[in-house]
Amino acid sequence: MVKGWSGIAVITCLVMSCTNEAPKNANTPEDEPALNGFSGPLEYAVVPDNVVHDTLLVQVALNLQDGTNIMVASNIEEKFEGLRLYHYRALPDSSAEVLSVSVPAYDSWSMLPTFFGPGKGMNGSWMAANFGERESWGQKLFWCENGFQDRGFIDLAFPEHVVEEDTSYLKRTTIAPFMRVGYSNDTTLFMFDCDSVYIYDDLKGHADYVVPSASIRYTYHPTTGLVLWMNGVPRTPKTNT
After folding, report:
1. Is 0.85 surpassed by the pTM of this model?
2. What is the CB-side half-sphere exposure of residue 222 using CA atoms within 13 A?
3. What is the mean pLDDT of residues 140-148?
4. Rounded to whole angstroms, how far apart are CA atoms 158 and 203?
């Protein structure tokens, strides 16, 4: 029997436009845009046990409110690929009709998805899947329409300051709840509604430091891909494969 966690999970699908270098028609203003009009994560309920599966070990499954579900699962027999996302429809006999499968998370222990509009579920929406072990490694981004379309990686985490007894330390947690998505013509903008973000790679030779969230955004444009911007200046992105 597939096992699911109880509660409400925030899922977010993200629309993005990637850029190898910022084109002049990227529709991204020179000044940092405000968060007015940007949308946050969509909320989907966790699904209780609703299918029988002999080969998958399920971490969590969510109801996408369109008659289908998405689950985070790995093979019962451990494999190198590790976790994947499975979009499926539960059938009356408790079996699952698998509709699409994402790329694997490999050595990550987490692949928890967060969805954003403009669509719902797997019908034209964006998703950020949190990768990591005990802490976040960042977000794999997907465009969700006719399957999981890989759109690159957001190298950010939320810097949470934790105090335990007499010890204070920085814990890197998922940035997904703070992500906000907006649109300017055919460009999608991703911004972060928090004071600061932890950046793993600024694509200019610096890594692993905290910066004000207002200095960071990502854009996605169909002709150029996912682009990191810092202080209004585009950075050369990594490959989106």
Report:
1. no
2. 4
3. 94
4. 19
